[in-house]
Amino acid sequence: MEITDVKISIRNEERLKAYASIVFDDCFIIKDLRVIDGTDRLWVAMPNKKRRDGTRRDVCHPLNTVTREMIEKAILDSYDEAMREQLYTAEEADEVEEVEEVDKDEDEAMREQLYSSGDSASDEEENDDEAMRARLYSDEETDEEEPAEEANDE
User: Fold this and answer.
1) What are the pLDDT digits (tens) for 39-83?
2) 3-100: CATH class
3) Contact 43/72 with Cβ under 8 angstroms?
4) N or C: which terminus of the chain carries fewer CB neighbours within 10 A?
5) Can you tell me the distance from the alpha carbon of 76 to that of 153, in angstroms, rounded to the nearest whole number?
C-alpha cells in the first residue's frame, strides 16, 4: 500500500492545527483527519463520529503501528511543508509591501520635488514682483523728493 496524495488545510486554532486528507494507491481516500497540537508533539487524529451517548468513535483507523506511523509521517511532513510555504508566502507579501512602500515614498518625493520646483519658480516670480514693486515705489519716492529739493534750492 502506497500513499499517493496528501492534502492539508491549515486552521491554526489553539489545538487544531490542520485538516488533512490522504489517498492510498490512487484509489482510496480518507478525509477529515486532524493535525492536533498535543502536550509534547503534533499528532494525527482519525476521522470520528459523535454517538448518541456523546462519546466519539473513529470512523476508520489503522490496524497496526507501522501503518499508523506511515500515515502520521506523511501527514505531518505535508503539514510542515504547508507551513513553510505559508511562511514563505507571507515573507514574499512583506517584501512586496516593502517595495510598494518604497515606490510610494519615491512617488511622494517626486511629487514634492515637482511641486517644490514649481513653488520655487513661483517664489522667484513673487520675489521678482516684490523687487519690481520695491523699485517702483522707491523711484516714485525719489521722483517726489527730487522736485521738492529743487523747489527748496530755488
Assistant:
1) 899 999 999 999 999 999 989 999 999 999 999 999 999 999 998
2) alpha beta
3) yes
4) C
5) 111
